[in-house]
């Protein structure tokens, strides 16, 4: 049976992640990002719906959700799994937010925030990869998917050398899986050659 602190950490993590940053910031401009582009609430669609400056605010809030979820999870219980699973729950909450009918974003920024606490070096390794793929292809989705997988691989390597705990590895893998599932439609379009490129719409 999981401890009460672990259950509470996961629930709190989900609720933190479920805060719909894109929708809240969109209201400041009288725009709902769900009415534009992909209908998602994350940074990429916020660029289309709100413009770069406001989308940057969405990105900061989404990253902060992952950071806060892990920190609060760690504060709620001494078991390191509390923070790790709270971070995963935050990504799930971002992708499927109960506050907006279980819609949301793709989970990339919130996952990055969580992993910045759990395995910051893994995120630092993946960031240049994301930037290079985005520059070369203008496919945010491809960069996001690739970077999420890289974070999991690097986190596993860090575990093997004793720099992070196994809970960080599990969290990175679960976050990568959530991100992949959230990008299922993007993956189909990438394979079909019809995926939207940043700057083309």
What attributes characterize this protein structure?
globular; single chain; 0% strand
Descriptive notes:
Helix 3 packs antiparallel against helix 4 (52-76). This protein has helices at 4-18, 21-29, 43-50, 52-76, 80-95, 108-118, 120-137, 140-160, 166-182, 184-192. The chain contains 10 helices and no strands. The protein has one domain (4-192). It is mostly helical.
How many separate structural domains?
1
Total count of strands: 0
Helix content estimate: over 70%
Major beta sheet summary: none
Given the C-alpha coordinates, what overall shape results? globular
Structural class: mainly alpha
Total helical segments: 10
Q: Flag low-confidence runs.
A: none
Gyration radius over CA: 16 Å
Strand content: under 5%
Mean pLDDT: 94
Task: State the distance separating the first and last CA atoms.
Answer: 50 Å
The SSE string, one letter per element, is HHHHHHHHHH
